[in-house]
TrEMBL record:
The keyword Metal-binding does not apply. InterPro entries: Homeodomain-like_sf, HTH-type_TetR-like_transc_reg, HTH_TetR, Tet_transcr_reg_TetR-rel_C_sf. Residues 16-35 bind DNA. The keyword Transcription regulation applies. Residues 1-53 form the HTH tetR-type domain. This is TetR/AcrR family transcriptional regulator. GO terms for molecular function: DNA-binding transcription factor activity; transcription cis-regulatory region binding. Keywords: DNA-binding, Transcription, Transcription regulation. It comes from the Bacteria. Pfam families: TetR_N.
Amino acid sequence: MSAAREIFVDTGLHAPLSAVAKKAGVGQGSLYRHFPDRVSLAVAVFDENIEELEALEERPESSLDDLLSLIIEQALVSKALIDLITADIDDPRVAHLGTRVQAVVDTLVARDRAAGLLAPHVTGADVMLAVSMLAGVLGWTPAERRPEVARRAWALFHSAFSGPSAAPTTPGAAATS
């Protein structure tokens, strides 16, 4: 799994699986016995990213801003995650990742709305659309420009989503960490 993560981070989702097997020190046959195709391997690798989002949701002080910052941080380091989410959205193996992210988003939207941090018109579907738009843009943005693009997108999201009692924050603070 760690070999696949490294290869995917460096090369993208379409990296040769032979490179993953070589990095892991196993034969391609062994890799294919555990993961019959590229999507199966990628879903297993990026399941850990979704677990990070779910852990963030479990902390009562977490907000939608925290979630967007973490998603941006994850997207900045892995084009493969972006590729997986945007290229195979209808694949049931990928769709469950989206369902889990949607559950996190819905929880944080409700929490932020109750705290007056989120404008009443913003829905979980709006946040998911914004995340999809961000993933698409970061997917074709050269790696060296992704942090700046992510900061600008974060500022737009924050402005569009903030409710009347939201405190101003520094756009993209987590994206630069």
